[in-house]
Amino acid sequence: MFEKQIRIPPAEEIRAEQPVPAALAKIKEERDVLAKDVITGRSDKLLVIVGPCSAHEPAPVLEYVRRLGKLNERVKDKLVLVPRIYTAKPRTRGVGYKGMFSQPDPEHKEDTLKGIHTIRSLLLHAIEESGLSAADEMLYPENYAYVEDILTYVAIGARSSENQMHRLVSSGIELPVGIKNPMSGSIPVLINSIYAAQSAQVFKYHNWQVQTGGNPYAHAVLRGRVDNYGNDIPNYHYETVMQVADSYANTEGGLKNPAVIIDANHSNSGKRFKQQIRIVEEVLQNRQYDRDFKRIVKGFMLESFLVEGCQKHDIVFGQSITDPCLGWEDTERLICDIAEKA
Asked: Which CATH class is domain 11-341?
């Protein structure tokens, strides 16, 4: 049984109520081009998607993106920084805090309508205060329409990359879409997901039959895998990356814009957040060692917040209430190091 609680207006209505001001739309358009140019190879900059595991409270997120905006001025010749403002949190067992989209106050009950308005306000203020447009995870494909006019980068999580609807909706997004390898780590499954996202599709979406042209900016994100016993197995090493490169090249029918983003946390780090620094350094060394590796590795995903670590309840300002993150000082040093070695 489904008990109806709150009517959610169509996405068009919500976007009309909270439109993107022209000045912010122009910034977003410029940032979109920068991100796309990295994926296509028109730019040799590195893409760095960085921010908290989940955005549970607007104030610390805005403080974080303000700092990131200032840091961007120092590294923009080498990097394209995209703040990670993830508003939906996947749960392995399906219970617990599911993110700002459904629960705008983590200490109170779900209110999706309030969550949608809170997210749009947060994403707009983030552009206004930092000059940077954000990345979010498309955990629920039908929700993407509520934020499609604000984001610059979309991520598809490991639990979602095999899902048909995620692949179909990705094919209609005109932005870089990073598709993570599935939890199993299967590279063929990852390549199939990218192929589907890059292909034209016809399907039902928001009460319409729609047709898409395919998304040439869909690409691979390596986040490590989990074996049959629950152990984290990294896949950011040279050998795996080059296997992905070979899979891109050998896919029947071809794939556009071969690209790999390295997610330095999750199963690559075993959620030991400080390991992100070492992982990034190894990947940067491999980029210097091998021209083909450098050509396909286009950037990093990092989990970072104002205060390192995590907490169960929202007590410490700017500390994650989900997975542990790097603190700001380490993040700043790491981003400057990436820029120096890019």
From this structure: alpha beta
